[in-house]
């Protein structure tokens, strides 16, 4: 009688298998769309929303109000992680990812149809907040599901590499979203003698709506790709073994609270760096040098092109980080990168002081570090939790960190920018301090490189192999 098939690091031999190309495309395209939707809001929050939805005699107050709504979505993200995590751990990854993508796409499309404050008063502002909360709720369930699709279908020894593909959606979404804003701004007529740091009247009137409405096209493409996936073999094995939890959240809180805390703080520096480089930097870069709180004084087009150049390094080094984390381990790789982020925060101002070349170098270094720290998270956070609660656990850690890091980062950065009389040196110190917290969490944690994803208990892969061999021995 032949010995039963043994489990591998990617699931049972009998379960349906997703082609590797389909796994990579499905995990990449979904997060690209989600981050595109998120970024176009972030860009509009700097360019037009302060005047369209938050009228105020003080431009800084209007900007802070717009950033506050931007941060409100981060508060909704852990709620989304709990709801979608429950569905993903109970019903499967595929169906949950389809629902999260639909939710994000609908909310983004509706933002493009909203009336402004001049047309509907505070009702317009309230509707914007509601749609923003829906965006955050959807993104709370998107990332962990996409990361699980990639890592639970990855071949042995390449889990971190596969985990970088959902992460790659962040720089691609940024490039597509901001590139579309640039194209629209270039095509629309500009008024003679207009301030180059400000969008044109046509853009402010209706041009900003186009990227939000265009998201519907991208969502249709994403749904088509994801509808062709089959459930991961790892989750199918958990279902067959009867290990699906009725209340994944209760199990995570009771049995895996240490991993939740460590995962949250491991992501902290990544989030702070992420939103300082994408949201705060856009505001700082295009604020006039003679403003009450002076900035760099670049035109919107010039600075966004500089940012897109930096984001190319974000994309490249996201992919580079995967093989490094597979070879040297997630923890070791991230310890070195986080230490570099600490240093980067302290040399922030001297770099900017070198002029345009220094500003470009600042953006390139910041986005390079962003790719190196963000890439391994696609593998590390899922590896902290067993299959039965992996969607919930990794999603909560990722999204609670968004409150501590991303929700307050642009808000705190503007306050520190003001406190520094226009110099962002305190913003750099803030980044370094958050990186120290992440470094501490990494030093307290353990390496997850050799953890198996298919045993449901997070045991080292070698132990799983030995156990399977023992069970099949005569």
UniProtKB/TrEMBL annotation:
Molecular function GO terms recorded: symporter activity
Organism annotation: Streptomyces poonensis
TM annotation in the entry: 62-84, 96-114, 160-188, 208-225, 260-278, 298-321, 333-353, 359-384, 396-417, 423-444
Cellular component per GO, a single term: plasma membrane
Role noted for this protein: May be a proton symporter involved in the uptake of osmolytes such as proline and glycine betaine.
Membrane disposition: Multi-pass membrane protein
UniProt name for this protein: Putative proline/betaine transporter
Signal sequence extent: none
SUPFAM superfamilies referenced in this protein's UniProt entry, alphabetically: MFS general substrate transporter
Family affiliation: Belongs to the major facilitator superfamily. Metabolite:H+ Symporter (MHS) family (TC 2.A.1.6) family.
Pfam family, one: MFS_1
InterPro entries found in the cross-reference section: MFS, MFS_dom, MFS_trans_sf, Sugar_transporter_CS
Top-level division of the source organism's lineage: Bacteria
Every Major facilitator superfamily (MFS) profile domain range: 23-449
Region annotation Disordered: where it falls in the sequence: 452-474
Keywords: Cell membrane, Membrane, Symport, Transmembrane, Transmembrane helix, Transport
Chief location bin: membrane
UniProt-annotated location(s): Cell membrane
């Amino acid at each position: 009688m032949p010995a039963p098939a043994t489990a591998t690091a990617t699931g049972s031999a009998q379960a349906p298998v997703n082609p590797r190309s389909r796994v990579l495309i499905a995990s990449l395209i979904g997060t690209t769309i989600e981050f595109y939707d998120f970024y176009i809001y972030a860009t509009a929050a700097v360019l037009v929303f302060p005047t369209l939805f938050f009228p105020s005699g003080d431009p800084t107050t209007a900007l802070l109000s717009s950033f506050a709504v931007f941060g409100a979505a981060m508060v909704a993200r852990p709620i989304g992680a709990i709801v979608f995590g429950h569905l993903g751990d109970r019903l499967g990854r595929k169906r949950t990812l389809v629902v999260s993508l639909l939710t994000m796409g609908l909310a983004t499309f509706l933002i493009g149809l909203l009336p402004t404050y001049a047309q509907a008063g505070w009702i317009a502002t309230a509707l914007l907040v509601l749609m923003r909360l829906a965006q955050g709720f959807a993104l709370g369930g998107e990332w962990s599901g996409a990361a699980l699709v990639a890592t639970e279908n990855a071949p042995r020894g390449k889990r971190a590499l596969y985990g970088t593909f959902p992460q790659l959606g962040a720089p691609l979404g940024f490039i597509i979203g901001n590139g579309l804003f640039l194209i629209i701004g270039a095509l629309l007529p500009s008024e003679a003698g207009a301030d180059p740091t400000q969008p044109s009247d046509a853009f402010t009137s209706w041009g900003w709506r186009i990227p939000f409405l265009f998201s519907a096209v991208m969502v249709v493409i994403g749904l088509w790709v994801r509808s062709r996936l089959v459930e991961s073999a790892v989750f199918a094995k958990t279902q067959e073994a009867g290990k699906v939890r009725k209340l994944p959240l209760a199990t995570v809180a009771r049995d895996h609270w240490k991993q939740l805390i460590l995962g949250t703080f491991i992501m902290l520096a990544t989030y702070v760096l992420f939103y300082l480089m994408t949201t705060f930097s856009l505001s700082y870069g295009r604020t006039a040098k003679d403003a009450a709180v002076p900035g760099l004084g670049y035109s919107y087009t010039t600075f966004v092109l500089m940012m897109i150049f930096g984001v190319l390094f974000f994309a490249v080094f996201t992919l580079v980080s995967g093989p490094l984390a597979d070879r040297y381990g997630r923890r070791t790789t991230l310890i070195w990168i986080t230490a570099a982020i600490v240093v980067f925060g302290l040399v922030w101002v001297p770099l900017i002081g070198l002029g345009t070349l220094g500003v470009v170098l600042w953006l390139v270094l910041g986005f390079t570090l962003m790719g190196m720290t963000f890439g391994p998270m696609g593998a590390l956070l899922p590896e902290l939790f067993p299959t039965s609660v992996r969607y919930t656990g990794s999603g909560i850690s990722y999204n609670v960190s968004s409150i501590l890091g991303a929700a307050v980062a642009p808000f705190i950065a503007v306050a520190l920018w003001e406190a520094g009389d226009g110099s962002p040196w305190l913003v750099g110190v803030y980044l370094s301090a958050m990186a120290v917290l992440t470094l501490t969490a990494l030093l307290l944690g353990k390496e997850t490189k050799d953890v198996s994803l298919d045993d449901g208990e997070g045991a080292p892969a070698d132990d799983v192999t030995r156990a399977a061999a023992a069970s099949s021995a005569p």
